[in-house]
């Protein structure tokens, strides 16, 4: 049975106490089946529909340790004492409140850290001369059946019990008045004194990570209701070591990661303890935590010296006096001895907290003063409009709200501007792998060298996105540079094929330079450097003010596009083709799959496309130049406004150029690596290029790296006896080790069905991420002009006219603001807004996004 | 006194031994003051003049642990037994040799892990039925005086004693024949059973890291002389945990890092051990180690399950049976029980070794098949010419030599193509910080957002390289993109200043586009994208074959240059100025400082420069275009052939443009961040730009990131009510968190005199890194045309004519090959070769490079 007595604690009376005080003790015990029990059987927990929010208006610290039994609870107790029992505290000062949270407790009820803090504080309050009264509580919220009823694990029903038990104690101070408070809470407790994941499994009391976090959030939000934030303090004590598993098996450093609370690391002062402490510190750093101080017990080995040297004074190291080994010692003397250390630690924590909050508050103003953001009219960005991003965990930002000091989760729906891919698990893996790569290689120059990450990455690219056609990988830094390289490759290949190369080799004249042109599509976008810009049609981006040297070296065709409207997939033909369509048939499809179906190759519309292309090219005057390359973004033109080009048109175009011996470049910078539901968009087109460019998602979206893949025929056109015939384009960081490492890891991860649940059985397709029915409804919404949904992308164009339409429009801003309130961070392309997730994002998360979008669209229509 | 008895061990006779065998025991003890004792008093050890070389022709593993006393020595013993005492080994098979190395032993002589391995193996050999004879040795090479003589530490003389002690034992097998061998060696031993750094300090027996490594190298090289590599195996057992300090105080994971041996991690099977094991694994990863297997003792807590889950099957986890706690247990039964586990572990290690070696051997061929290296004529690169880089540690590559299976250190004298900066310490710090940043942020989109690394980096840039003039930071990915952005900024500013902006705002015509031109210098290089290329003069890089769209939109001036020849700094004037110089005075300087001295502003030559520039500009016909920007690389034109431009000429040019209201761009992509001995080369010129570009060394040279800094006046010319007036150039990874983190860390580190010994007292200059006398001698060498030495750069042009000169020349290749034999990795610019070090590289390292260069230059001249 549950040992009631163990919850009853009287503060010790010490010999120097001179004041009367009352003890008030309450205890009750409730047992009901917790509601979390049912939820815990679902293997993948649904995401919370309200985003996680953590108040930062008062200090909250995570107390971590490099191992079990190093004194985390002693540190928590000492901090509570420093805060609550300071001799300076008198009745003229306001009362204080300290919240001690122990989310996960094993060995319960014989072990209870919250009870320990509660009981020691009472004893200390009794010993010390306190002027203000002191009230304390110890709550235990939920426990496994074994922990509560002492039933053998095998006989337990699964689930956790609501255990509304608490103890309360009051110590009356010299001056009376309103009492300071200590609230200790154990959130979840298990009986066996083993690792939480093992206890939870044995006692059939699993608790999902999201449940732990929601409960923590609730405790922090409600813990200080009615209190002045300047008089409150909170610690969350973890169980075991930093990387000990929590109840679900998730390592605790990962479990608590979405909160990213600052941490105190209780290190190890024993022999071997330097190593354990440093390693634990590195584990925290590799999860993005900030460690504010390290505390070690004195074992006479001066471990603090090498620790301080390792930490290079960035982080203070404090030394606690030796802890008495005698179990009967009540530690009162020890706490008095350690009092000065705890006071210092407390001051460090308070000042680190203040500095952090001050910095977070200052950031929007400073950003506005020192940054020059790309694609941003600074005059239109007020200080209030600047988003302070404290961290990211998987697909979510942690955004600091300056107006109410809250850290709130926002889904990164701009997928960090089209790059972001990992979920929280892959993010941690990538962080470790990139740390490894930096430590192993730093950066290593590439030409004529080989090193593992570059080789592995090149091999994976050729076996993956280049499979069946590419034989060479040319690395560069970003999409723009990859495109410039692709153009150089294509033009050389064209020149080579068309027999003019040998003439040109000895020809220094600049006569022919302007003659090579690209064939491209209107609405395309291939990057921001001049060479990439020259390959795109005139647009908002290419005016003299933006690109003083732009001329537009191409023949640009108007492409037919496809979109969803009123729950139907439509084909929209450009002007030159419209008359044909009226004659030849339907301009809509029964489904999106029909759009991509190869049977369309034999349709009338294929014939129309083919003759239109042939006709247009035939009419292009040689005086304007020679078409030396075809360049296109397969299926989706992203920066151009998220337009889906009819894949049939692109396929016909590619085949035409192939017949004419014009090299074909696919710009897969945006579309590559599952963005559109397949590893490459070329698979959707069902044809292959001679050259293709990849970047963005290639590294999982964490770090810049690009690759231009090419066929062996393209490569061969650069072979020769002279270095001057080689491709003399490169960047210092070509194939940099960290980028290649991230790419190799991400490429493998995204397509592994063991790691990415979205990979369907065949391995070539992501499952449908955006709920079809809901997307259909949104496409029928009166505020919506068109929807494009494919793979990780769901975009819509708001109905707008005049200056409300187009890239410069601010039409969507009120809608975007509302979505941010819902925890969705988006950035528009004028009146086009889009949601983008990662290749591993759960469809349930996407469904939540659509629900919120639909609701906000309704509001948006009503306002207009 | 030294307890001799403790070195004598007889193998136990077990009940099932049926064979006669002899025991041969030898012991002698020598005491002489070690030669390392003297060396150990020098605070910074000189680099070894011969590069570190580790044989990889047989397996060598590092045995590491997450804490002390987890069983590293048991694992070493078990592996030795698996290898040497296999029952399958008979006299027809060749004998085997196992080398056990314990570099650092404390608690000696009562504790000696090598003696333990030695004695247990003898006992096991005695117990088991061995067919082949077995010979074993235990050596102890050096020990502190306290450890040897048992004198109190206070009375000790500093230094380590040569302790040529060894034990030997022979067990005769059933079949006789040549014996298998076990050689156990303790390299350095101390008496106190504490952390090595503490024992070394207390016992006045410090050993430098380089001494440990050299001794290890020697043991590995000599350990198997005369043995067939396929029959040998070696382990190096570390002391304590992975991050326990070694004798010098360097953490062991850092101490052994230059070898980067594959590791076996002995984890912790106890409560809390999951965390410690994972953290230790992460510490090893954060040093670039590969962990091949994790071994834990069974404590009934199934720690292997969460460990295997964390490791995702990348690394196998093996479980050892519980180790008897009884100290009198001879562990014979335990070893028999654990035999199967050790056999598996051994197989894993053998197969990981084979895979690694196979991969290293395959890499050159595979690289030649899948890579397309930039700036490389593939036809000229044979498989043999490909360098296999296994890792980097600070300034050194670890290069795998395919022909003799040796891993050898090579100084990265191309400084990884002009980026590399950190020494080994900073590399580790950067790896951890970048891992942290990836874990905290991954990547976060930049526009209208603020996050700590971007803000800190921008602030550091403006307070540092932009101090006194810049007010805005525009981030991009590399030097080329930073230059394209700079050009856009400059042209907008020019247009704005010259009153044509409002005309152009409503002017869509393309008439004026080609009119804006840059003023630039011949020999300059600003990057590889088209826009950057357009700003440079025609060169090998700009021909039609390379840049089909290149036109060269600039007025390009011939600059006067400065160089060292015959130990004298000369001024070389371009053709147009030569007649003047004859009239007006000296063309050489008394010292390099004189070149930079501001008093030259008042010299005749300043006047000549000024009027030459004014005259040339006045003559530039408006039909060719309007000069809208000045762009130059301050002081050194790098890609153009490592030319030092007369700083006076550049200053005069800048002042001229400033007077004409022409925006000035400094391309500091190469020169920035201490490359030339000052944080910016602008400091050497003593004038400031309106816009400056930084990249390469900005992140410490580890990861691509660029910044274009600008004045507020430049920024203001983009302000307006329309987004279309903003600077619409950006890349998805603008201000990516990892790059900004690396930059912030490196910027602070390089200029901190506490961390970078090369920072002279004033903090604005690096101390002279290249020995002046030796550089002077090299400049007088008959093979040398000219030398340019400044900051971290030492370049020289070899005297060459015709096709031997210029970028396409292969003239230097034999010299470079020789330098690689000396452990120096260089890459030429045609007949120009250069050494580049990092801002923290010790002058002694540079001196060693020069010594080797001078020797090889002598040989080079003799061949010619």
TrEMBL record, chains A, B:
Record GO terms (molecular function): adenosylmethionine-8-amino-7-oxononanoate transaminase activity; dethiobiotin synthase activity; pyridoxal phosphate binding
Gene3D superfamilies: Aspartate Aminotransferase, domain 1, P-loop containing nucleotide triphosphate hydrolases, Type I PLP-dependent aspartate aminotransferase-like (Major domain)
Keyword Oxidoreductase annotated: no
Keyword Signal: yes
Cleavable signal peptide: 1-38
GO BP annotation list: biotin biosynthetic process
Localization of this protein: Mitochondrion
PANTHER family: ADENOSYLMETHIONINE-8-AMINO-7-OXONONANOATE AMINOTRANSFERASE
HAMAP family: BioD
Name of the protein this chain belongs to: Bifunctional dethiobiotin synthetase/7,8-diamino-pelargonic acid aminotransferase, mitochondrial
Natural source organism: Ziziphus jujuba (Chinese jujube)
Gene name of the record: LOC107414560
């Amino acid at each position: 049975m549950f040992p009631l007595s163990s919850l009853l604690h009287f503060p010790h009376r010490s010999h120097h106490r001179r004041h009367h005080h009352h003890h008030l003790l309450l205890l009750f015990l409730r047992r009901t089946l917790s509601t979390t029990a049912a939820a815990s059987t679902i293997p993948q927990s649904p995401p919370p529909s309200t985003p996680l929010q953590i108040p930062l208006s008062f200090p909250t610290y995570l107390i971590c340790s490099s191992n079990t039994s190093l004194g985390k609870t002693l540190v928590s107790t000492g901090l509570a004492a420093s805060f609550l029992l300071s001799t300076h505290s008198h009745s003229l000062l306001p009362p204080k409140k300290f919240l001690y949270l122990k989310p996960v407790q094993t060995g319960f009820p014989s072990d209870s850290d919250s009870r320990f803090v509660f009981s020691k504080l009472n004893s200390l309050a009794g010993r010390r001369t306190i002027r203000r009264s002191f009230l304390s509580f110890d709550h235990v919220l939920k426990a496994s059946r074994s922990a509560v009823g002492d039933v053998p694990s095998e006989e337990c029903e699964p689930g956790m019990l609501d255990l509304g038990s608490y103890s309360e104690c009051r110590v009356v101070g010299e001056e009376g008045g309103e009492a300071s408070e200590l609230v200790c809470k154990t959130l979840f407790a298990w009986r066996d004194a083993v690792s939480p994941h093992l206890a939870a499994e044995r006692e059939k009391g699993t608790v999902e990570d999201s449940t732990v976090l929601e409960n923590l959030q609730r405790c922090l939000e409600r813990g200080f209701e009615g209190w002045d934030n300047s008089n409150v303090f909170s610690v969350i004590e973890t169980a075991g070591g930093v990387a000990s598993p929590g109840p679900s098996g998730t390592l605790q450093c990962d479990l608590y990661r979405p909160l990213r609370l600052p941490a105190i690391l209780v290190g190890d002062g024993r022999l071997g303890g330097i190593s354990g402490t440093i390693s634990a510190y590195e584990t925290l750093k590799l999860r993005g935590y900030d460690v504010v101080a390290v505390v070690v017990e004195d074992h006479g080995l001066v471990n603090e010296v090498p620790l301080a040297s390792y930490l290079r004074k960035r982080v203070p190291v404090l030394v606690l006096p030796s802890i008495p080994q005698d179990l009967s010692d009540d530690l009162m003397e020890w706490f008095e001895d350690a009092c000065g250390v705890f006071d210092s630690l407390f001051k460090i924590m308070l000042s680190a907290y203040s500095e952090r909050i001050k910095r977070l508050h200052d950031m929007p103003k400073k950003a506005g003063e020192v940054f020059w953001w790309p694609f941003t009219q600074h005059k239109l960005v007020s200080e209030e409009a600047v988003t302070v991003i404290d961290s990211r965990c998987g697909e979510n930002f942690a955004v600091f709200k300056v107006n109410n000091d809250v850290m709130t989760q926002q889904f990164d729906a701009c997928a960090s501007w089209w790059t972001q891919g990992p979920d929280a698990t892959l993010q941690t893996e990538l962080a470790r792998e990139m740390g490894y790569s930096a430590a192993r290689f730093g950066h290593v120059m590439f030409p004529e060298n080989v090193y593992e990450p570059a080789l592995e990455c090149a091999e994976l690219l050729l076996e993956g996105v280049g499979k069946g056609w590419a034989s060479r990988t040319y690395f560069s830094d970003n999409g723009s540079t990859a495109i410039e390289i692709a153009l150089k490759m294509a033009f050389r290949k064209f020149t080579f094929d068309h027999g003019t190369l040998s003439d040109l080799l000895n020809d220094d004249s600049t006569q022919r330079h302007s003659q090579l042109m690209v064939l491209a599509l209107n609405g395309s976008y291939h990057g921001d450097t001049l060479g990439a810009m020259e390959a795109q049609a005139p647009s908002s981006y290419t005016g003299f003010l933006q690109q003083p040297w732009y001329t537009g070296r191409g023949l640009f065709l108007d492409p037919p596009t496809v979109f969803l409207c009123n729950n139907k997939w439509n084909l929209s033909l450009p002007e030159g083709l419209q008359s044909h369509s009226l004659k030849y048939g339907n301009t809509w499809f029964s489904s999106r799959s029909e759009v991509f179906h190869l049977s369309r190759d034999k349709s009338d519309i294929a014939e129309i496309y083919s003759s239109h292309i042939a006709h247009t090219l035939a009419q292009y005057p040689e005086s304007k130049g020679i078409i030396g390359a075809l360049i296109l973004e397969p299926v989706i033109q992203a920066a151009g406004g998220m337009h889906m080009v009819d894949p049939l048109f692109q396929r016909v175009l590619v085949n035409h150029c192939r017949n004419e011996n014009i090299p074909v470049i696919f710009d897969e910078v945006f579309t590559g690596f599952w963005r559109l539901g397949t590893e490459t968009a070329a698979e959707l087109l069902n044809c292959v290029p001679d050259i293709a460019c990849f970047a963005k998602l290639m590294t999982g979206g964490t770090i810049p790296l690009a690759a231009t893949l090419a066929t062996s025929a393209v490569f061969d056109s650069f072979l020769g006896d002279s270095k001057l015939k080689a491709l003399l384009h490169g960047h210092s960081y070509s194939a940099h080790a960290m980028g290649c490492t991230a790419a190799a890891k991400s490429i493998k991860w995204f397509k592994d069905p063991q790691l990415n649940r979205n990979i369907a059985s065949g391995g070539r397709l992501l499952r449908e991420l955006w709920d079809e029915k809901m997307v259909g409804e949104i496409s029928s919404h009166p505020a919506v002009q068109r929807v494009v949904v494919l793979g990780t992308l769901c975009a819509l164009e708001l109905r707008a006219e005049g200056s409300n339409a187009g890239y410069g429009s601010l039409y969507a801003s009120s809608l975007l603001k509302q979505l941010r309130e819902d925890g969705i961070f988006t950035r528009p392309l004028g009146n086009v807004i889009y949601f983008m997730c990662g290749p591993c994002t759960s469809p349930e998360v996407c469904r939540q996004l659509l629900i919120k979008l639909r609701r906000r669209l309704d509001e948006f229509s009503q306002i207009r």
